[in-house]
């Protein structure tokens, strides 16, 4: 069996920046064990599998596809950068003729539309609730040490804990943060938290005018740090939109690779997440 595979860097216009995802377009479904083995072999934060739904459709003509995402250790419910990469494969390499593609996923239907530079994803919004820092003191300590914390919030359905650093902190503090994934795993074992977002207010007065910064850590999903995380911005976008009084925002995830996301919080309870994509590899998996 031969399976085509692409590796693309999402939320960037430069190779080796942004967040790499592997994408495999499939005419027929595989068994779950094989999906997981391929994702472990690719060893990226996510490998996406695009499957045709209607037997009459091709990757060129179809407008609806099934989409599944696997980390090296588990299947996940929502992934932004691999959705962006999947759309790019269909539009760029399969020459899909439709202006918008819809992916059927564990998080419902996700639409991706091509624009002049990159693609726009239509994602659910996941507003977090304010929490008492005392309830999470050990995990906060493991994540940010003694840095001043302005607020702690939890998205219960996404199982993402968001820690906002004080406005007194410089961006370099977030960029230089060293988080021990083993320590996080040993502290949080009850399944309430599956990812840690650390965020801070941006510098909109400085070009290019980022409204907020973040980093994301998910060792529970086999990802010590995710370089640029679309799903985390369904939480971040909701929070910062209310905090800043803005619908449209520009965000930067300041991992070592770094990536830029254009956000628009909509009135219908969803969020547009836009970004660019660069291809770095095209090949074949032989089994």
TrEMBL record:
GO terms for cellular component: cytoplasm. The keyword Isomerase applies. The active site is at 46. SUPFAM superfamilies: Diaminopimelate epimerase-like. Keywords: Isomerase. The keyword Nucleotide-binding does not apply. PANTHER family: PHENAZINE BIOSYNTHESIS PROTEIN, PHENAZINE BIOSYNTHESIS-LIKE DOMAIN-CONTAINING PROTEIN. GO terms for molecular function: isomerase activity. This is Phenazine biosynthesis like protein domain containing. Belongs to the PhzF family. Pfam families: PhzC-PhzF. It comes from Kryptolebias marmoratus. InterPro entries: Phenazine_PhzF-like (IPR003719).
């Amino acid at each position: 069996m031969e399976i085509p595979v692409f590796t693309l860097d999402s939320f960037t216009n430069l190779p080796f920046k942004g967040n790499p995802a592997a994408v495999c377009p499939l005419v027929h479904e595989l068994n779950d064990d094989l999906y997981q083995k391929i994702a472990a072999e690719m060893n990226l934060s996510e490998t996406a599998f695009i499957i045709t739904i209607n037997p009459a459709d091709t990757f060129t003509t179809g407008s609806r596809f099934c989409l599944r995402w696997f980390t090296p250790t588990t299947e996940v419910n929502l992934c932004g950068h691999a959705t962006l990469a999947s759309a790019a494969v269909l539009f760029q390499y399969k020459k899909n003729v439709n202006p918008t593609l819809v992916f059927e996923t564990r998080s419902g239907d996700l639409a991706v539309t091509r624009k002049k530079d990159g693609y726009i994803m239509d994602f659910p919004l996941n507003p977090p609730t304010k929490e008492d820092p005392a309830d999470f003191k050990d995990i906060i300590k493991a994540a940010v040490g003694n840095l001043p914390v302005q607020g702690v919030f939890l998205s219960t359905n996404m199982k993402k804990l968001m820690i906002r650093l004080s406005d007194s902190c410089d961006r370099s503090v977030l960029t230089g943060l060293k988080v021990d994934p083993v320590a996080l795993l040993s502290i949080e074992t009850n399944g309430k938290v599956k990812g840690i977002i650390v965020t801070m207010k941006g510098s909109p007065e400085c070009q290019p005018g980022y409204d907020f910064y973040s980093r994301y850590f998910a060792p529970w999903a086999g990802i010590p740090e995710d370089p640029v995380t679309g799903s985390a911005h369904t939480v971040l976008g909701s929070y910062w939109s209310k905090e800043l009084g803005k619908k449209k925002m520009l965000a930067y995830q300041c991992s070592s690779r770094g990536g830029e996301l254009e956000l628009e919080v909509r009135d219908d309870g969803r969020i547009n997440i836009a970004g660019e994509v660069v291809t770095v590899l095209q090949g074949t998996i032989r089994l």
